[in-house]
Amino acid sequence: MDCGTTHCYVQGEEITLKVWDTAGEERYGVVPTSFYKNADGIILMYDCTRKETMNNIDNWWKVINDNCDISQMTIIVVCNKNDLENAREVSKEDA
User: Fold this and answer.
1) φ and ψ at 57, to 5 degrees?
2) Of 45, 18, 43, 20, which is closest to residue 31 (Cα–Cα)?
């Protein structure tokens, strides 16, 4: 798992941005719950060249929904490697 912290300004207000990257590893499925419990937002990313990563979005959504008040946060789903059209396993329609 990789993590980083930075400070940035949003609409003139300084905020602290903390990012935890689990790289989708199942072994980290339990660790992040303490991190994202108080999160303001979550980015779920899948690799469009590997269909199983898109299938895992449902699993991560369930874990987040079971551990967080999702009405109080922003959740974004992002497609990675979208430029590799010939290697795509996830169609744009499925996405």
Assistant:
1) -55, -40
2) 20
CB 55 within 8 A of CB 88: no
Buried b / exposed e along 4-31 (16+ C-beta atoms within 10 A): eeeeeeeeeeeeeeeeeebebeeeeeee
Q: What is the DSSP letter of 88?
A: -
Q: Which residue has the higher pLDDT, 26 or 69?
A: 69
The residue assigned the tokens 């989708």 is 24
Residue at 77: amino acid letter: V
Mean pLDDT of 35-55: 85
The pLDDT of residue 19: 80
